[in-house]
Amino acid sequence: MTYYFDYGATSLKKPEAVAKKVYEILSSGEYANPSRGSYKEANNAFIEIYKTRKLVADFFGISDEKRVIFTNNATEALNIAIKGVIEQGDHIITTKMEHNSVLRPIYQLAEKENIEFSIVDSDKYGVVLYDDIEKHIKSNTKLLAITQASNLTGNIVDLKKIATICQKNNILLLVDGSQAAGVIDTKVEKLGIDLYCFTGHKSLFAPQGVGGLCIGNPNLIVKSYNVGGSGIKTFEKNQPQIYPEMLEAGTHNTPSIAGLAEGIKYILDKGIDNLYNKQLSFANKFYNSLKDVSIIEFYGNFNEPKTATVALNFKGVLSSDAAEELFEKYNIAIRAGAHCAPLMHKHFGTVEQGIVRFSFSSMTTEEEVDYAIESIKKIASELN
What we know:
By secondary structure, the protein is an alpha/beta fold. It is 38% helix and 15% strand. The chain has helices at 16-27, 40-60, 74-85, 100-112, 159-168, 188-191, 254-270, 272-290, 319-330, 342-348, 366-383; strands at 3-4, 68-71, 91-95, 116-120, 141-147, 172-176, 195-199, 211-215, 296-299, 309-314, 332-333, 335-337, 355-359. Strands 2-8-7-6-5-3-4 form a seven-stranded mixed β-sheet, sandwiched between helices. Helix 4 links the parallel strand 3 (91-95) and strand 4. Helix 2 (40-60) packs across helix 7. 48% of the residues are buried.
């Protein structure tokens, strides 16, 4: 048996309804190509796509479901959002907390286009320094791109505070919700978020291969990321300039999109706050049971809002070696290394060592948590 604590990477365990729905789409012979025909099987697929789009819109507080754009993952959504609103001469603000899915599109624009960017520093726990944001604002600042929750430490950002700064300075706000979608109840329009990107396969319990972009600002035009088939306006040379077709070229991933709907239904049925409190209780128990072990160093602020993520290291031990020991000896699966968060590792001074990340889910069990705690204590005692 594998004891899985890498839910920040993907949800290993899914609600049964998700698997059943995906299997139905694939096995029934009742679902063809959505928006590519008027026969029953094509309409069945179209209806699944539409129902999920409406469900996602309601879940994230988007008043018009047409402004929900389906993508393959959050990385694609972030590329669409960043490259779709930035023009030559613009300035972007981002933070040390970001994943490479935010940083690399910005670096690419800066290298190939006349784009500037600034990076806001973090405090000793890795939390963005809110008071420093406005110091980076210039006359040409167009966008602030920020994660909702760090994939490394689990630190949660105060989006109300961030949105207020953006609105005050007439700056677009882009939020990477990869680690928070399905964990934190987020209403995009109400919060004043212009662009919200999410992935399905983490805490929304969907299959891999589906994510999305929610356009909270009804007046915002996001340029086409790729072009091709749309099912409408076939004789026009350009991609249709209406949402969602403007940003959705080609055939949809109907099985994964339908699975996403079932994942969201599961969250709505159980209660998003209930699921969050459950997984957070596991993370807190894990941290509180180990925080006084002298050979272990923790990262992140455990006195402020967090996701169910615990970042740690055994002092003087490479994270990769720790991960190997955890799996080979104890069958514990975790994420070690750089976590696609290079600036956070530079901030913590862990570029060479990396960090061991435990991430918990509401699907985790008490017994698994207890086993992980005891295993960590055994390793720590052997290192002392």
